[in-house]
Amino acid sequence: MKFSISQAALQDLLQVVVSAVPTKSTLPILSNILVEADREGLTMVSTDLDLSIKTRGEAQVDREGSITIPAKRIGEIVRELKPDTEIKVSVSGTKVKMNYGHGSSTIIGLDPEDFPQLPQIDAEKMVSLPTDVFERAVKRSAYAVSSDETRQMLTGVLFQLQGNMLNLVSTDGHRLAKAAFQGDFKGLEGRDLIIPPKALNQVVRLASGNPKVNLTVSRNFAVFEVGTTTVFSRLIDGNFPNYEQVIPKENPHRFHLDKEEFMGAIRRVSVLSDHVTRQIKLALKPERVELSVSTADVGEGQEALPVDYTGSEIAVGYNASYLLEALRTIPSNKIEMRLNTPTSPGILVPAEQEKEEDLLCLVMPLRLPDA
Amino acid sequence: MANTPNPGRLIAHVDMDAFYASIEVIDDPTLEGKPVVVGGPPEKRGVVAAASYAAREFGIHSAMPMGQAVRKCPHLIRISPRMARYRDESIRLMGILGTFSPTVEPLALDEAFLDLSGMERSIGSARELGQQIRAKIKAETGLTASVGMAPNKFVAKLASDFDKPDGLTLVEPSEAVSFVQNLPIKKIWGVGAKTAAKLDRIGIRDVAALSKSEPSVLKRHFGVLGLRLHELAWARDDRPVVAHSETKSVSHEITFAKNQKSTALLKGVLTGLCEQTARRLRHGNLVGKTVTLKIRFSDFATVTRQDTVGHPTEDAGEIYEIASRLLELEREVDERSVRLLGVGVTSLLRKSQLNLELFGPEQLQQDTPSLDADQGDSKRDRLNQTLDRLEDRFGPQTTQRARTHLATGESED
Questions:
Q1: Family, per the entry (chain B) (predicted)?
Q2: % helix / strand / coil in chain B, to the nearest 5?
Q3: Distance CA B200, CA B222 (A)
Q4: Is B311 on the interface with A (CB under 8 A)?
Q5: C-beta separation of B51 from B60 below 8 A
Q6: Nearest Cβ partner of A147 from B310, B356, B363?
Q7: Is the Cα torsion angle A339, A340, A345, A350 positive or negative in sign?
Q8: Which CATH number fits domain A2-114: 2.40.37.10, 3.10.150.10, 3.30.470.20, 3.40.50.1240?
Q9: Would you call B128 a catalytic residue per the annotation?
Q10: Tens digit of pLDDT for each residue in B274-326?
Q11: Which CATH code for domain A249-363?
Q12: CA-CA to B184 of 20 to 30 Å: which in A62, B58, B331, B410?
């Protein structure tokens, strides 16, 4: 195998695939990138067995062939070269020799035969999503997934395709995010996929500059295509809980807040919250909402914000981090909060929804000590 | 400075007499008046955890190696510790103390401070109040307690030791200084053999001399401790009685009678430790996220390894899952024999502090059935509660998971 390529082009290809290379692996070959040269150019593949990234790029190929190269080592060498440097790569056996400028290096690779096979794509059905919608959907939902491996089905984002609706829902059992979009999403109707957030975030990263993200499903893999790059993600097994059931229809105590002011107040008050529970108290009163905290051996603090509320008083405890993480995803600067009881879910929504979008954040309370 | 420290405060120190040994005598009245000790057998390197007063007449005291105790008293009656039984009795004791004051600070299973400030007035006198506490303990548990009452914790603790066993010593504020200054200097908190020798070298041989020495001199020789010693020599101690010190961790450990090498056996022991730990979490209405495994090898080298659970737990199975994985990762276990094995859970939360759940356990069923998953959380909670009730009724180790039967060990909390 023999090819030559500019530093800039090689660097770009490596950057696409390197994110799927596991930092630690029991299988040494996963630390390598599979490089295949054919008449048209190069194909590179990386995988951690759950997530695989495949990309293609142009190169001057003199002899076809394939090899796997340690990702970290080739990355570090290429990074140190100037963009216009011509790199000549020739492989004999498992030795990868690179010639550049006045230097050269030889990296020992591993047999490409041992590299895991990518899943076969045999799906003819496909849905095409505007990158902008895909990116918004992921950014507004992925934060709420669980990291608890004993609740597998909550560690991914529910990806629901319903023809003219796309729902992305995630929950860790204490809070929930639902981003719904209207549009033409035909092709994979009726599919409910649970996709690891890592894969979705990678697709968002790789999709920038491409107008469309194409999605197909093949057995237990979701396959995303953006330009010349393909991301394969293992789907998470299990039944996503019936989330519609827990979204309250009627939360009567409603008020509006400036998002930045609200977040600032939460951040200041929560400095003195318990470091494990992060509990703060929200006391809703006519015309104002009072945020307060009182933690034994730590201290106490409070802050009041004016609100357009005239109903009865209610006090609810929340994990400050949950509120902040939800608020951060809301695009508008005015938000609406809807409460019901101190033990039922509170709702955060943009005061005005974006066009063809419906975003909802749900947060379960913490019991107040005196309640 | 006035010589009446902490006026207006009344602190009691309640110290049970030979607690473990006395419980054994209650449970088996034929032991009454006999030299009884609680502790592991001499051939298993046991030490005396508690000695009855009859045993103490032979010069036996706690922390003495069992072999030595048996030599001092050949007809000594040795009983292996039953920690769960003592713990239950302790819960009863603390409950009784709680009827006298809302501010009870347990120091160990068998001793506690009570803040009784102002309460003597409704009873009549401090001495009467002290007698009532002792009488109630005796009536409800059959055990005797020694009680010290004084204006602060330091003097109260000295006072409970003054007339032990079965005594009551009241030190009025005006008597506190002379009470302390008439005690041997080693009774002062913080003065061990080393400090006593060092004090002796600078000419301080009794508490009165300590009280008269210059604080700056003491500070030079002993640092902050020196200043504290000077305060204590004047019977001054402002530490409050802290009602409920938050539990930071719950743990159980076992020292093996014989060092162990078999991973299967260690895992069996681990199951039991996890169950005891989980049971105590549930008793305290606590859940924890971090599981710690402690291994001491035969050469006393000790390692601790920890990992976190995905969600706060009180379940023995979930604790075991992490602890056994940590044990498997400890490669040296294959090569060196293990002397001690322990399991602990930290990052504790009260159950009431948990974030409320959005979904019920039935909504979060995994669809791939496995041993653990096919009993959902609620089912497992019910199982745990039932096991706890059985143990509460019929004593510890009524029920055990099958894995436990592989192993036996000597429990020493």
A1: Belongs to the DNA polymerase type-Y family.
A2: 45, 20, 35
A3: 13
A4: yes
A5: yes
A6: B310
A7: negative
A8: 3.10.150.10
A9: no
A10: 999 999 888 878 899 999 999 999 888 889 999 988 889 999 999 999 999 99
A11: 3.10.150.10
A12: B58
